[in-house]
Amino acid sequence: MTSCVRWYDCRSGYYLDGCNITSSLSSDCRVYYNSSSYFACSGSLTASCRACSNCSAGHFISTACGLHSDVGCSPCGQGSFSDNGRTCESCPSGTFASSLGQSACAPCGLGSFSDVKGAKECSQCPVGEYADADGAVSCKKCPSGRTTAGKGSASSADCVCEVCPVNFTSAPGSVSSYDCHCDQTKTDCSTCAADEYLAGSYTSGTSCAACPAHSTSPAKSLMISQCTCNEGYERSSITECSACSAGKYKAGRGNSLCSSCPQNSTTTQTGQTSCQCLPGYKRANEACLACAAGTYSSSYESSSCSACPAHSTSPAASSSSTSCVCMPGGTCLECPAYRNSTQGSSSLSDCVQCKRCNASSFLSACSPSYQGDCRACRRCKADEFALQNCSWKSDAKCSSCSSLSCSSGQYRTGCGSGSTGECRSCSTCSLTEYQSAPCSQMADASCSACAVKACGDGYYWSGCNGVSQGQCV
Known about the structure:
The protein contains no helices and 44 strands. The protein is mainly β. Helix content is about 0%, strand content about 30%. Among the domains are: about 75-160, Tumor Necrosis Factor Receptor, subunit A, domain 2 (Ribbon); about 430-473, no CATH class. Keywords: Disulfide bond. It comes from Guillardia theta (strain CCMP2712). This is TNFR-Cys domain-containing protein.
């Protein structure tokens, strides 16, 4: 019999593999926690120390290497990346990551910018500004007296002179709409009340018109550009103010664009004037600080973090009490399935019975004073796979099949309805066939039979080569 390795024989960065803590208390081979507590080795009667792994690029270590378990990996969230497989970092200003599990952030394209770290998307340059290079952290302003026709301009050539309102004129070299004055050869240069502007034409005359929805203007405004968007709204065109999208905000009036929320915060609705700290963070003046290890916050815009139950801890920035796990060497044991206990419980008898659910349901809101509810497990859609299967105490989590990829020369088949499918090698057409459709991430190559075509005098048909269908040469 080979002697066992004790868990405390494994050096830092390694974990014990090959033992089964649920096996009978055999005296043949034991791995000791201390002088009186032990568990027997598995059937092989051997155990060994294994090196803790790193996650693949685009992922981070979400569960640390345990006494007898390897690390757990999770994909980096939107607005972040990982090139080392250990931790995620926020995308630098001027870049973004719109999907999960990115190993690098993409630069903002022409006509767009990102002035914050951790951007999930880039913002278009506002009217009157442009960005003529990739990776911009801000947009360049048009010269005085010039503007752009809309958002997202990518060149200084898009900056054109502003036009004075109908029945108004200006002197050569004017640089502002305020240089426009009433044309004495015309009539009807009347002023307008607040929240109105002068509209009309030379032939029909002018009149006061209401500013677009969600905008306002000072009295005596001469043109629609003087109608500025309200808080929580941005200028989407010369005649429209649109609500800031989720994840963005605008605190003051004006025609500037909405700003992305600062790091570790977001908005859960459109048209917001401020951002809320994410679960796992707490508000500290103007910043959102991560909950310290051993604490958690499950709601948005928390002012404080809750402590984990006794003898348990959690990673920093934890957003749920389920992130609290027993400390190594502690005495916390998980209650059996469909049983729950209160904080500070000290024995199995403190675990009270919860409602039992069928295999297609999971238990929600079980507590010592309430047996909980059974809720139907989520079913992944035809184009989704299961990130996490439904269990007795948690629902399934699904993600789009498009987020999966295969190696070069392979395609994925069978993904959907919860399954990840598998990667298969792309088919190669024979020399009597040609490739009528290329191999892609989600579909194999298609091969079609070759056909000889008649060529003109002095030319002949080259024939198929497994890729091309041939040509007259």
